[in-house]
Amino acid sequence: MNVSDSHDAVGIDVRWTDEASKRLERAPLFLRGMVRRLAEKKARELGYAEITEEILDQFKNQMMGRMGGESGMADAAEQMEQGHLPWTAAAKERLNTVRNSCAA
């Protein structure tokens, strides 16, 4: 990890508890880096020096409110287990725009 990954402008070093690190390892590999960066950024903004499982739950609940809640995430997880990556509404709209412009 380099300095920019572990410190923000005020130099808060964010540590992960063993439990929080193990929980992060359960996330799909392609999401782990993004989840780590977002959690550390949010922790720094809030002045947290350590990320625990409880803090991960807090961040997850905040993010899920923006992404369709528990049922939306459950649907996305089920799709990923079946080998399909879920699309956001904005991505689907963009795809339809591109398809319609190609069909014209």
Structural commentary:
The relative contact order is 0.09. α4 crosses α5 (69-81). 69% of the residues lie in helices and 4% in strands. With 104 residues, the protein is mainly α. It contains 6 helices and 2 strands; from the N terminus they run αβααβααα. The model is unreliable at 1-9 (pLDDT under 50). The longest helix is centred in the middle third of the chain and has 18 residues, at 29-46. It is elongated, with a radius of gyration of 17 Å.
Present the secondary structure layout.
Elements: H1 3-6, E1 15-16, H2 18-25, H3 29-46, E2 50-51, H4 53-66, H5 69-81, H6 89-103
Parallel strand pairs: 1-2
Helix pairs in contact: 4-5
State the helicity in percent bands: 55-70%
Beta content: under 5%
SSE ordering: HEHHEHHH
Uncertain stretches of 5 or more adjacent residues: 1-9
Keywords, separated by commas or semicolons:
single chain; 104 residues; mainly alpha; two-stranded parallel sheet; 6 helices; 4% strand
Task: Please give a quick description of this structure.
With 104 residues, this protein is mostly helical. Helices cover 69% and strands 4% of the residues. It has helices at residues 3-6, 18-25, 29-46, 53-66, 69-81, 89-103, and strands at residues 15-16, 50-51.
